[in-house]
Amino acid sequence: MTVLGTGLDTASPEYAENRAALLAKLDELAAEQAKAVGGGGEKYVERHRKRGKLLARERIELLLDPDTPFLELSPLAAWGSDYQVGASLVTGIGVIEGVECLITANDPTVRGGASNPWTLKKALRANEIAYANRLPVVSLVESGGADLPSQKEIFIPGGALFKDITRLSAAGIPTVAVVFGNSTAGGAYVPGMSDHVIMVKERAKVFLGGPPLVKMATGEESDDESLGGAEMHARTSGLADYFAVDEPDALRQARRVVARLNWRKAHADPPIAEPPKYDEDELLGIVPGDLKIPFDPREVIARLVDGSDFDEFKPLYGPSLTTGWARLHGYPVGILANAQGVLFSEESQKAAQFIQLANQRDIPLLFLHNTTGYMVGKEYEQGGIIKHGAMMINAVSNSRVPHLSVLMGASYGAGHYGMCGRAYDPRFLFAWPSAKSAVMGPQQLAGVLSIVARASAAAKGQPYDDEADAGLRAMVEQQIESESLPMFLSGRLYDDGVIDPRDTRTVLGLCLSAIHSAPVEGARGGFGIFRM
Predict the structure, then answer these.
(1) What gap in Å lies between CA 442 and CA 256, rounded to an integer?
(2) What secondary structure letter does DSSP report for 341?
(3) Residue 418 and residue 125: Cα distance in Å, rounded?
(4) Residues whose CB falls within 8 Å of the CB of residue 148, separated by 6 or more in sequence, listed in order
(5) Residue 20, in any domain of the structure
(6) Which of 52, 4, 515 is nearest to 282 (CA)?
(7) Ramachandran category for residue 298: left, alpha or beta (phi over 0 → left; psi -120 to 50 → alpha)
(8) Three-state SS for 324?
(9) Long-range pairs, 421-424, Cβ under 8 A, ≥24
(10) Which domain holds residue 449?
(11) 378 and 449 share a domain?
């Protein structure tokens, strides 16, 4: 039998402690996500409503098929910065007329939907996801353009947004723009470059330069409607393909455009899958609050995969890394999950072989992170840990099948790279609130700095100030701890969202479905030189 058993004792004090710690973190997460949903605040939300307009998420809800999920991406973008959490943009994947689409929606309650540096990063990440997974893009536009005080960080890299739209279209991936309000200056190129454009009567304003700029540049007197109104673009310029009488009508027409795309996924959806044998709620009590304490990743896998059915690969070799085959919502996956935290030479070689096998079989890979990195020490250096770790990183780097990553616990050092961290282009990467990621743990990093400083003082023949050392260590530990937390990392778009562990199976299922909109094909060779 390949159905996983469980040794999880839900009545134990350890389980209760782990669960309580994670629930507390989920409460903190909910409070921060509420800031993104709240947009610019009650005052600006109310002003927007008085204008007879829908909020960004309300527009998305009317656009989507009834009772279908919306996988919101990067909801904490800009967290910890001077800008509003959420970065004045909503992005995610949803189903429109049976078609999975990448949807973006400006939030006009935040500085009129103006784009700041984090808005740009979030929009570029959304386009990257659409391109990699061949997802039609629907943009719900209402933005005053760039946030001018931060233009130095937006203008030059911001041109990539328009390049992305044309690349999507050139690749045969449909792009649809629905304009609800302002779409000015550079923002005018979003509808200008999209395949299909819908504009709302007396609301949409699309022009390269508004009346004040035109007056300054040419001396010409003009008004919004004649310069860039929806009716003008529908009757005169031809920029608008469809003329909507109001917002619900615009969203109805957008649904009809998607329905007529004749869009087909590269792979058929699998049949309905058997759920796991164990309760997903139990995922809350598996990861210890202290990430130095190891946990068995099979307990996580048993609560994610179909029927808890898992064929483990090389179970007796390199036991600190669990590898094996399963299905998740009917889709085949190869899973790499860290068990005890540290990656040794055996684990690295095992991973490299497993990744090659997945590429031979065109099977997507799921990386479940809980690693402190590759093992250090004289014995391991002499045993070839560098070349074996490089072998694993080589395999990850040159793998062509889609990768999914979930940070459950620790994700430190080069182990983060070997397990397909953000720099290794996973199709999607999510974190649990229990996760931490940095070059190394806070205590280790502070300790290293202390040892180096002490050695430097000794080399100069100077006394060492132990009291100052203690203060430095405490300060460094606090800094690294705060910078390794998931909300900090998510705010910088180093992941696609911090998720409730109980939602992991659903989130991964939505991602796997989106991934199979594009052909899933592995590398047949093409790996770099493996140092043996």
Answers:
(1) 53
(2) S
(3) 22
(4) 114
(5) no
(6) 4
(7) alpha
(8) strand
(9) 422/494, 422/495, 424/396, 424/397
(10) 442-483
(11) no
User: Residue 1: its pLDDT value, please?
Assistant: 64
Output the pTM of the full model.
Answer: 0.93
Contact indicator for 140, 104 with CB cutoff of 8 Å:
yes
Pairing mode of beta strands 331-338, 321-328? antiparallel
Integer CA distances (angstroms), 346 to 315, 316, 329, 405, in order: 12, 10, 31, 21
pLDDT average, residue stretch 419-445: 90
3-state secondary structure of 205: strand
Structure tokens given for 332: 């085949």
- The alpha carbons of the chain give a radius of gyration, in whole angstroms, of 25
Q: Is residue 222 part of a domain?
A: yes
Of 138, 142, 90, whose CA–CA distance to 114 is shortest? Answer: 142
> What is the residue whose two structure tokens read 């890299």?
157
User: pLDDT-derived band of residue 245, with 50, 70 and 90 as boundaries?
Assistant: very high
Task: Evaluate if residue 531 carries a pLDDT over 80.
Answer: no
Does 275 fall in a domain?
Answer: no
The CATH number that applies at residue 315 is: 3.90.226.10
Structure tokens at 34: 């509420």
Domains identified in the chain, total number: 3
- Nearest 5°: the CA angle 154, 157, 160 is 120
The amino acid occupying position 523 is A
The torsion defined by the Cα of 222, 227, 232 and 238, in degrees rounded to 10, comes to: 150
